[in-house]
Write a structure and sequence with these properties.
Elements (H helix, E strand, L loop, with lengths): L11 H9 L6 E8 L2 E9 L9 H14 L8 E5 L3 H13 L2 E6 L5 H9 L3 E4 L10 H14 L3 E3 L7 H17 L6 E5 L4 H13 L4 E7 L33 E5 L1 H15 L5 H16 L6 E5 L13 H4 L4 H14 L3
Parallel strand pairs: 2-10, 3-4, 3-6, 4-5, 7-8, 7-10, 8-9
Antiparallel strand pairs: 1-2
Helix pairs in contact: 1-3, 2-3, 2-6, 3-4, 6-7, 8-9, 8-11
GO molecular function, one term: transferase activity, transferring alkyl or aryl (other than methyl) groups
Function: Catalyzes the synthesis of N-((2S)-2-amino-2-carboxyethyl)-L-glutamate (ACEGA) from O-phospho-L-serine and L-glutamate.
Organism: Dictyobacter arantiisoli
Length: about 350
C-alpha cells in the first residue's frame, strides 16, 4: 500500500508501477461463533490495493475504458463524484498517467481521504447541500453536470453508469475469489453503492457456479434496493439513487444494516483480530452473521471487504465521534459482535 506521507516525493514511474499492481488481494479466514457452532468466513481484503480500497480496481477500469475509446488527451480534466475511496484511486491513476483530476465531494468525506487526494494533486470541489433523500450523491452529480457544462475539457468517468465499473470486477475480483477459494463458493456477501462490485462479481460467479447464493449488503437509509431513504453516517456504502448495474437476477437477498451495527462489528473485529476495516466491511460482517444464524447449512463463505480502517481514524475508530451515535445500541451490538467474532 502507498505511503501517503511521502507520496509527493515518489517518481511518476513508481506511481505507474503502483497503479499496475492493483488486484491479487488476499483472502483472510476468521472464525465466527454462531448458534454455538464455529463458522469459517473468508474476508477478501481489498485494503491491500495500492490506495487501500476496492475502488482501485474500479478507477483503473474507468480510465482504461476512456483511453480505449480515445476520449482522453494530455489536456483532459478527469472529473468524478466520490464519497472518498474512488477519488483517491482516480487521483493516483490520473497522476501516474498525466491527467488532471477533480473530485466532487461532500462533508461526509473523511479528512484522511481528502488529504490523500490533495497529496496526489487532485482538485477538490465540495458540495454543501444535502439532496432530497438526505444524502449528498444527487447534489454531487448536479455539480458534476454544472462543471461539465462550464468547461469542455472535463471528461466524466461516470462510475454510476459506465459498464467498465462492473466489468472490471467480472474480469478480476470475481475470478480471484473463485480461484482463491479453490472453486468452492457457496455464498458471497458484497456491499453496494454504485452496484458495480456486486454486479461484476455475481455475474462471474453465477457463470461458473449457478447455485451460488449472492447477498447484497446495503446501509439502512440507502435506496439502492428501493427502500425508504433516511440519513446515515456510513460512507462508501449505500446511495441516494437506484443502481444502474444491479438487476434482480444478480442477487438472492438484500440486507440492510444500521450505522451502530456496522461500527460495532468494525470495533469487534479490530479487538479480536487486530484487523481494522471500514464501515462497509462492518456492514458486510454484520449481515453475514445475521444470515448464517438462519442458514447453518452454508459453507465456503466469502465477505467482500472494500477498504481498511485507516481512513476512519477520526470517525469510526474515534470514541468521541462514536458518542454521537445511539451509544446504548452501539454498546449492545459491540458486545454481541465480541461474542460472535473469535480470535
Amino acid at each position: 500500500m502507498i505511503n501517503f506521507s511521502t507520496i509527493r516525493d515518489v517518481p511518476l514511474v513508481e506511481l505507474s508501477n503502483q497503479a499496475q499492481s492493483i488486484g491479487h488481494t488476499p483472502l483472510r479466514p476468521i472464525r465466527m461463533l454462531i448458534n454455538e457452532k464455529v463458522r469459517t468466513v473468508y474476508l477478501k481484503l481489498e485494503c491491500e490495493n495500492p490506495t487501500g480500497s476496492i475502488k482501485d480496481r474500479t478507477a483503473y477500469g474507468l480510465i482504461q475504458d476512456l483511453e480505449d475509446k480515445h476520449l482522453l488527451t494530455a489536456s483532459s480534466k478527469v472529473i468524478e463524484s466520490t464519497s472518498g475511496n474512488l477519488g483517491v484511486a482516480l487521483a493516483l491513476i490520473c497522476k501516474a498517467k498525466g491527467y488532471s483530476f477533480t473530485a466532487v465531494i461532500d462533508p461526509k468525506n473523511t479528512r484522511e481521504n481528502i488529504a490523500k487526494m490533495e497529496a496526489l494533486d487532485a482538485r477538490i470541489d465540495l458540495v454543501q447541500s444535502p439532496d432530497k433523500n438526505g444524502g449528498y450523491l444527487l447534489s454531487r452529480l448536479a455539480r458534476v453536470q454544472e462543471l461539465l457544462a462550464q468547461n469542455q475539457g472535463y471528461v466524466w468517468t461516470n462510475q454510476y453508469a459506465n459498464a467498465a465499473n462492473p466489468n472490471v470486477h467480472y474480469l478480476s475480483t470475481g475470478p480471484e475469489i473463485y480461484q482463491q477459494m479453490n472453486r468452492k463458493v457457496d455464498i458471497l456477501f458484497a456491499p453496494v453503492s454504485t452496484g458495480g462490485t456486486l454486479a461484476g462479481i455475481s455475474r462471474y460467479l453465477r457463470e461458473v457456479n449457478p447455485s451460488v447464493t449472492i447477498v447484497g449488503v446495503d446501509a439502512h437509509g440507502s435506496v439502492v434496493f428501493g427502500t425508504t431513504p433516511a440519513t446515515r453516517r456510513l460512507t462508501g456504502i449505500g446511495s441516494s439513487r437506484r443502481s444502474d448495474f444491479i438487476t434482480r437476477d444478480l442477487y438472492d437477498y438484500a440486507l440492510h444494516v444500521k450505522d451502530e451495527e456496522a461500527f460495532a462489528f468494525c470495533h469487534a473485529l479490530s479487538m479480536r483480530t487486530g484487523l481494522k476495516l471500514g464501515g462497509s466491511s462492518g456492514c458486510t460482517l454484520f449481515a453475514c452473521a445475521q444470515f448464517l444464524a438462519d442458514h447453518p447449512e452454508m459453507n465456503h463463505i466469502v465477505c467482500v471487504c472494500a477498504d481498511g480502517g485507516e481512513n476512519y481514524k477520526t470517525t469510526i475508530f474515534d470514541q468521541t465521534w462514536i458518542q454521537q451515535l445511539s451509544v446504548n445500541y452501539f454498546e449492545q451490538q459491540l458486545q454481541r459482535a465480541l461474542d460472535i467474532i473469535l480470535e
